[in-house]
Amino acid sequence: MNERVIRGLYAVTPDEFDTALLAARVKAAVAGGARLLQYRNKGAPLSLRLEQARTLVPICRHSGVPLIVNDHPDVALEVGADGVHLGRDDGDVAAARIRLPGKLLGVSCYDEIARAISAERDGADYVAFGRFFPSVTKPGYIKASLDLVAEAKRCVHVPIVAIGGITLEHTPSLIAAGVDAVAVISALFASADVRESARAFAALFEKGRK
C-alpha cells in the first residue's frame, strides 16, 4: 500500500504563522495533485502547531491526501494525523513505530545508507534523502548525490523521497534516478500559483510512468 501512497509530489509546508493563509495554500497544493502533505513549522509554539495541524486534517481528508506531521509524534496523535516524519534528533524510530501503529512513518536519512537500512528495519514506511540541490530551507545540510539513490534502491525496499532545493527542472533527473516522491517546499508554496505548480510537478511523475 505505501508504495502507492508515497508517489509523486510530497508537499511540505513552509514556516507560515497565518493559519488561514496556510490552509489556502494547502488547499491549492492538494487540488493541483500533491499526493502527500507534511505539516512543518519549525518556529511555531505548540499551541500554533496544534491549531494549524487540526486545520489541515479535514482539508487533507477531503482530498484523500495523507497528512504527515514533521518532528512531533505527540502532535500527530493529538490531531489524528496520518503519520509522522522524524529527523535525526526527533526520537527513536522503533519507539515511534510502537506509538503510531498503522500510521505512516518517514525518516530523514540525509546521505546515510546505513541510517536508511536501520530505519526500514525499525518500521519506517519511507526514507528521505537530501538535500540534493542548494536549498533556502536547508542551506547547511549535507548534499546527497543521484548515485546515492541507486545505491539506496539496492539496499532498502521502502519508497525513497528526495528533499532539498528541488524544482521542476530538477525533478526529471530524480525520477530517472529512481526516487518515488519529491518533497518540495519553496518551489511549490512560494510560487505565484500553488495549484498550477503542483499540477506541473504531478505531471512529471505521470510522464515518468509512461
Describe the structure.
The protein is α/β, with parallel strands linked by helices and about 210 residues long. The chain has a single domain (about 1-210), classed as TIM Barrel (Alpha-Beta Barrel). It is about 45% helix and about 15% strand. The chain contains ten helices and eight strands. Strand 7 (about 160-165), helix 8 (about 170-175) and strand 8 (about 180-185) form a beta-alpha-beta unit. The longest helix has 18 residues, at about 45-65. The two termini are about 20 Å apart.
Q: What name goes with the CATH superfamily?
A: Aldolase class I
Q: What is the terminal separation in angstroms?
A: 21 Å
Tally of individual helices: 10
CATH architecture: Alpha-Beta Barrel
Give the SSE order as H and E letters.
Answer: HEHEHEHEHEHEHEHEHH
Largest sheet: 8 strands, parallel, barrel
Kindly list the characteristics that best describe this protein:
single chain, 210 residues, TIM Barrel, 8 strands, 17% strand
Sequence-ordered SSE layout with sheet pairings:
Layout: H1 2-5, E1 8-12, H2 19-32, E2 36-39, H3 46-63, E3 67-70, H4 73-79, E4 83-86, H5 93-99, E5 104-110, H6 113-121, E6 126-129, H7 146-155, E7 160-163, H8 171-177, E8 181-184, H9 186-189, H10 194-209
Helix pairs in contact: 2-3, 2-10, 3-4, 8-10
